[in-house]
Amino acid sequence: MRFMMLMYPNAAAEAGVLPDAKLVSAMMKYNEELTKAGVLLALDGLQASSKGARVRFGGGKPRVSDGPFTEAKEVIGGYWLIQAKSKEEAVEWASRCPAPEGDMIEVRQVFEMTDFPVEVRDEAAEKRVMEGLAKK
Question: What is the number of other CB atoms lying within 10 angstroms of the CB of residue 20?
Answer without folding.
Answer: 9
